[in-house]
Amino acid sequence: MCLKTIFLLFLSGSVLFQSAYGQDKKTGEKDDVIRVDTQLVDVPVVVTDKTGKPLLNLKANNFNVFEDNNPQELAEFSATTAPFEVALLLDTSGSTRSELDLIRRSAQNFIDSLRPGDRVSIIAFDTERVNEKAAAMPKVLTGLTSDREKLRDALSRIGTSNGTPYYDSLIKIAETVFRDPPKDEYRGRRALVALTDGVDSTSATDFGEAQELLRKAGVLGFFIKVDTRPFFEENLLGDCESATRFSQSQIRRYYRTFNPKANVEKAASFCQLGDFERLAISKKLYELADEEMTSLAKASAGRVFPVDDLSGARSAFKSVADEIGTKYSLGYYSSNERRDGTYRRIRVELKGLPVGSRVRAREGYTAPFK
Questions:
Q1: Mean pLDDT value across residues 270-276
Q2: Residues in CB range of 90: below 8 A, 6 or more apart
Q3: Distance (Å, rounded) from C-alpha 268 to C-alpha 252?
Q4: Is 194 helix (H, G, I), strand (E, B) or coil?
Q5: What are phi and psi of 46, to 5 degrees?
Q6: To 10 degrees, the CA torsion angle through 23, 24, 28, 32?
């Protein structure tokens, strides 16, 4: 090959490289492909005045975003009218058997209160046979859809389970319902809405794994926290054969978390636990559930809505729907281009708004690795 031919090939390659990855010096226009390997960071945000009333009709220039204290340039902004995608998790473990109709009606009212463009997936618990044994499993009754008839049909099919695979259900939502990247109109506008007491009894996975997957997916967490503790503890004491039992998974989780030096194998039998120890385990498991729900909600700019029992679910669902309707979404390309898998903190500041205005936003994200 002659030197002239080599030079022409090199020149052609340089032009193609500049066209695909660079900037045209004559026009000054940037090619969109330049961001093909850069992650857009979505930041859901809600803003309230000093009385707690949501502030609507805000603009992108009302927000400043910082990552690890470094200012970031906003690339995208969605107003409160933009649609949402919602994974609706309904805890239908055995204790709710007599309340299924109430759960269905409350969930249907929630769906009816959403906007026409919002899409919903419904997840509940079911009992399946695994290795000849009954096992509680999370079940996706319908994927994300805005078809209200499909959602109504899915609600009619919810059943109960013989356990609470709460952590497994959170992972299933992250890996199944929100597996694929969102379409542009739903970026930064995906939410988990869970009706539960948050006390897991049968999951093969743990909270840390679920938390990390939901955090990576940028999912907002809204929890309607049902207080089942009085009912549970009322039936927890006395004869171990007739009492409501902890599962072995719950007992091991308790000792692993709060008393790691104890003989877990000896304590794994419910009948070896005295009344005092049963109440101590129950107290700690419910406290742990509260901490986990609060952690997921706070880190994602969501909220926890406590209710005394399932009769309060309807009004709580309305509060969640109202909250979803007040969310803004900000998006930016991080000025930190390192793909190091580190956790980066996000801070959102307001500008040009009345004194006393407050913002609640996603607290951070994990950067991609390599």
A1: 84
A2: 103, 107, 122, 123, 124, 125, 158, 195
A3: 7
A4: strand
A5: -130, 140
A6: -50
- pLDDT tens digit sequence for 43-89: 999 999 999 899 999 999 999 999 999 999 999 999 888 899 999 99
Cβ 179 vs Cβ 210: under 8 Å:
no
Q: Mean pLDDT, the chain, as a whole number? A: 85
72: which residues sit within 8 A by CB, 6+ positions away? 41, 65, 66, 332, 333, 334, 335
Instruction: Give every CB contact of residue 272 below 8 A, 6+ residues apart in sequence.
Output: 266
CA distance 123 to 141: 6
Those residues whose C-beta lies under 8 Å from the C-beta of residue 163, and which sit 6 or more positions away, are 93, 94, 125, 135, 136, 201, 202, 247
DSSP-derived secondary structure letter, 163: S
pLDDT at 332 > cutoff 90:
yes
Q: What architecture (CATH level 2) is domain 85-324?
A: 3-Layer(aba) Sandwich (3.40)
Token pair 């994927």 in the structure block, residue: 143
Q: What share of the chain is helix, strand, coil (3-state, %, to 5)?
A: 40, 25, 35
Q: Whole-prediction pTM value?
A: 0.84
> What is 222-236 written as a DSSP string?
EEEEE--HHHHHHTT
Residue where the block lists tokens 């009816």: 112
Residue 192 and residue 273 in contact, taking contact as beta carbons nearer than 8 Å: no
- Which of 274, 308, 315 minimizes the C-alpha distance to 113? 315
pLDDT of residue 264: 60
pLDDT band of residue 96 (cuts 50, 70, 90) is: low
Measured distance CA(137)–CA(127) in Å, rounded = 6
Q: How far apart are the C-alpha atoms of 13 and 151, rounded to whole Å?
A: 54
Write the pLDDT tens digit of every residue in 308-318: 988 899 999 99
Q: Give the helix ranges, DSSP H, for 90-141.
A: 100-113
Distance CA 83, CA 183 (A): 11
**Phi, then psi, of 351 in degrees rounded to 5:** -145, 145
Residue spans of the domains in the chain: they are 34-80+327-366, 85-324
